[in-house]
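Annex B. Sample input.
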Amino acid sequence: MTLEIKTGHGSYPVYIERGALRRAAELADAEGRVFIVTDSGIPAVWTDCLRQQFPDADVFVIPQGEGSKNLEVYKELVSDMLDCGISRRDTVIALGGGVAGDLAGFAAATYMRGLRFVNIPTTVLSQVDSSIGGKTGVDLEDTKNIIGAFWQPSAVIIDPDVLSTLPERQTNAGLAEAVKAGIIRDPDLFAIFESDSFRDRPEEIIYRALKVKKDIVEADERESGERKLLNFGHTFGHAYESYYGLGRYLHGECVAMGMMTVIDDPQLKERLRAVLEKLGLPTHCDADPDRIMELMRSDKKADHGVIDLVMADEPGKGYIRRTSLEELRGRL
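Annex B, continued. Sample output.
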C-alpha cells in the first residue's frame, strides 16, 4: 500500500508493506551521501539490514528514549554531520521511533538550512502517527517539542515486520494514537479496536490512521486550524508526560489518559475505557492539578490563558473548542 502526502512544496510517498526495510535503498531514492540516525534500542537485525544497503553511510546512534530529544544531543548530532562532511546534496535517514525521527528531521531541517530526509519508523507510535506531517523538534527541559520546525520528509518507509521485536507495552502504547485517529475522524477505525480481531489487522490500522492524518495535514499543513484535531488527548497528555517524567508512563499511555480527561459524553467515555483497558492502557491518573496547570500554561498550544481543546462526543466527529485554562482545571 502507498499513500501520497501532498504539501505546499510538493508531495512524498509513504510505503506501507511487509519487507519494505529490505528495499530501503530502492524506495528511499537517496541523494548524495547517506547519514543514518538511529537509537540504541533498535535490534541489530534492523540496523544491519539498513547498513548493508548503504555500506558507505555514516551512522549516529542516540541513547534510546525521550531523554535524547534535547538540544545537547541535537548539537552532538549536527556536529557529527559537519565532521563527516555532510553537505546540502546529501540525505539523512532516520531509523527508529518518534524520538529518532523528530531529532533527525530537525537536524535535516536546520543543518545548512535543510537537506533531504527519509523516515523509516520502527515503532507503532511512529508508524501510525509521527512519521508523516513534517513536525520535527526537540524538548526544552520539561516542555515537550517547544523547539522545532516543519520539514517534510522526501519519503517514509513503513515495514510492519519490524514491529515483531517490539515489547507488548510499546505496541499497545503506540496504538493509542490510532485510537485517537478513529475518534476524531474514522469511526470504522475505532470499531476495529472494539472487535476481537484488531491484533490481526496491523496494516489496515496503520493505513487508516495515516489516512486520517494525511487528510488533515494536507488541509492544514502548518496547524493554523483543522490540524489541531490531531492534538486530541495531547493537551493533557503532554502535561502528564512532563509531570511524571521519564520512566513511569510512555507517550501513548499519557495520551490515553489525556483522551479520557476531555471526553464528556458518558457513552463514548465507556466505549473508550473498554478499548483502553483491552490495550492495557491507563484510564485515569493521580497527577497534582496545580502542577499540571503550570505545565499547560507553558505548552506551545496555550495562547494567553486559552487553549484550543479537541473534543468528541461520538467516534469520527472530533471538534475544536476554545477553552480557558480555568475551565481546563476543572477536568482535573
